[in-house]
Amino acid sequence: MNEIVILSGKGGTGKTSLSAAFATINNNTIVADCDVDAANLHLILQPVNYYDRNFTTGSKALINYDTCTNCGLCIDYCRFDAISFHREKVTISEISCDGCKLCSRICPSHSIQMIPSDKSRWYAGNYRNGKMVHARLAPGEENSGKLVNVVREHAKKTAQETGWETIIIDGPPGIGCAVISSITGTNKAIIVTEPTNSGFHDMKRVLEITANFKVKTVVVINKYDLNESISSKIENWCVENNIPVVGKIAFDPEIVMAMINCQSITEWKPESETSKEIIRIWNQVKTDKCIIQR
Amino acid sequence: MTDHSNLKIAVASGKGGTGKTLVSTNLFWALQNTGTQVTLVDCDAEEPNMAEFISGEVLVRLPVTQNIPVIDSEICTFCGKCFNYCNYNAIVYLPSNHFIKVVEDLCHDCGACTVACRFGAISEKEKQLGTVKTMFLNSNAELIEARADVGVYSPVPVIKKAIHSVNDRSLAIFDSPPGISCPFIATVESADFVVLVTEPTTFGLNDLKLSVETLQQLKKPCGVIVNRAGLGNREVYDWLKANKIPLLLEIPFDREIARIYSEGLLLVEEKPAYQLLFRELLKTIEKLVKR
Ligand code: SF4
Ligand code: SF4
Ligand code: SF4
Ligand code: SF4
Fold it and tell me: Is A53 helix (H, G, I), strand (E, B) or coil?
């Protein structure tokens, strides 16, 4: 099994457009969209789902007003400021409740129940080049790392069942727990960066994480021509630090046109320079040619 | 200039990289240029980056802490009640080995274990979650940065502290963390108005819908800025119209803007015409809030 994760530090570097292109180059591909907080890849790959499941992230406190005496004791105990008097009635804010259950335990009239919050969902489906697992985290939910694990586990299971080799993981932005969940145990990471000072900075932070997890990592500079001097700064830094820069992609408005037409750039303009460069990058990464063991 | 309002405006986007930082830093700079008392709060505590664009002399650096329970195994009777009360599996309880300990990284500071223990075996100590840094720029402008320490379970307490540090009389701009999870909610909850920055693309619209849905649940008024206008299509505009969400401003796609931003420079300084646009933006928001 070949698990390749696409990362970016902060969003907006074109990570998902690139993942979509990689996902539509070969057949028998499995895609895991681990950007569960703001999933977008399904808009291009348009999977027909055969699975649609709940994901329970925790629980929320709920007051039974038939028995609540409005004594206000629970307000004093809640450390998350989730309970307050609202129009003289004790009220719990669902969004602020952290699910600690303390109010429910101390309520003298046993009027607080914990209700599982299961508004997040995950899905699996068929798309034109293979199968895709994706998810949607409900607003205000915190457990994105766990949901990423569910998505990855199912993608792996699918790979075992089908015997297909490649799993492409569209990773979440940032460097938080969801990112860590999306890279642990993968074989390779591709960091998509852009030539801005903040892009450069974020790339280095993501590299620290992939190095910690001993994942072989390569870099792609997207929209490199928007600032060639920062692009060469990034390239030189990578050379000095033994990180292969496997490709540079010029800014191309056709990437946006492809997205609007629900296609990847390699499907939309297969003969364009951009597509050729992306296919070249993919073939290199897939076959390990560019990768130096770090 | 304008009536010195103490409006709190959050600038957010479903995903990073849409131009949220471009908007918050330039709105801030345009306003302070005109003598308005204004504070910029970097609420993206996991990856603060405002200081790359604007920096000043650090005035105060406040640690943000949570309480971590400490269990004294000499006093503990190994009754197990705290272990049962902890809803986050943050207590390791091995009575046969006379071992009990709080796993700090899992603890949410809910206080349940302290309530549970009838033997007085649990006390609390402070643990640092992050820092809030206030930077002085000039007599009417301050930058407040929330920065969470690496590996803390949630940046929310750091964000709340940063927002609390804003002078009540000052207009404030909150640069919100991306996404729609707790850090985003903690930021927009304290704002009077939310500016959502998006791109006129399929991805942009999808992210925008999620953000708007969340803000509607919170009953927060919002408006939208379309960045990189000209790339993409009209779908976003049609959707805004159909849902009666105000379009506040369009920033065109322009390689020059991309270059200015990439070098950490400010648009309102490099292209003074934008100065006026951002001041107008504030007026538009003020009108919408009054309504
Ligand atoms: S402690 Fe129980 S009875 Fe008292 S206000 Fe809270 S829910 Fe109602
Ligand atoms: S479960 Fe905990 S966080 Fe939620 S309302 Fe009760 S005490 Fe507050
Ligand atoms: S404070 Fe809450 S989360 Fe922390 S150990 Fe005690 S019960 Fe568990
Ligand atoms: S509740 Fe108190 S006495 Fe019981 S196990 Fe916990 S710390 Fe020990």
Answer: strand
